[in-house]
């Protein structure tokens, strides 16, 4: 699995390099981070904050869509971990993944 992740990141880097027009470095970093977090075997909800600068740099609608989908995802996860809507105590170890 880890070799597929490394191969996909290298393939995207080569693809960016072979394009006829240059891609800004900021966008290449964002794509690489999205790939790494997508292919990583573990994921924490705090990693959603690491992706926030890139949709904001692309434009208004990607930023709105990203933050809306991340908010819905976090609300679902915290509701499952808490067992109810008042999120006074959330424990993923007891509730499950």
Short description:
With 97 residues, this protein is an all-alpha fold.
The outline comes out as flat
Average pLDDT, to the nearest integer? Answer: 80
Helix tally? 5
In percent terms, what proportion of residues is strand? under 5%
* Major sheet summary line: none
**Which structural class do you get from the secondary structure elements?**
mainly alpha
Total domain units: 2
| Unreliable parts | none
Structural notes for this entry:
By secondary structure, the chain is mostly helical. The mean pLDDT is about 80. It has helices at about 1-20, 25-40, 55-60, 60-80, 90-95. About 0% of the residues are buried. It has five helices and no strands. It folds into two domains: about 1-40; about 45-95. It is about 65% helix and about 0% strand. It is flat and about 55 Å long.
């Amino acid at each position: 699995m880890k070799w597929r992740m490394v191969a996909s990141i290298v393939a995207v880097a080569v693809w960016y390099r072979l394009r006829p027009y240059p891609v800004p470095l900021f966008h290449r970093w964002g794509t690489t981070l999205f790939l790494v977090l997508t292919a990583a075997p573990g994921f924490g909800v705090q990693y959603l904050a690491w992706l926030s600068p890139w949709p904001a740099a692309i434009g208004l609608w990607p930023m709105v869509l990203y933050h809306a989908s991340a908010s819905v995802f976090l609300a679902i996860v915290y509701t499952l971990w808490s067992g109810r809507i008042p999120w006074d105590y959330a424990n993923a170890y007891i509730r499950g993944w």
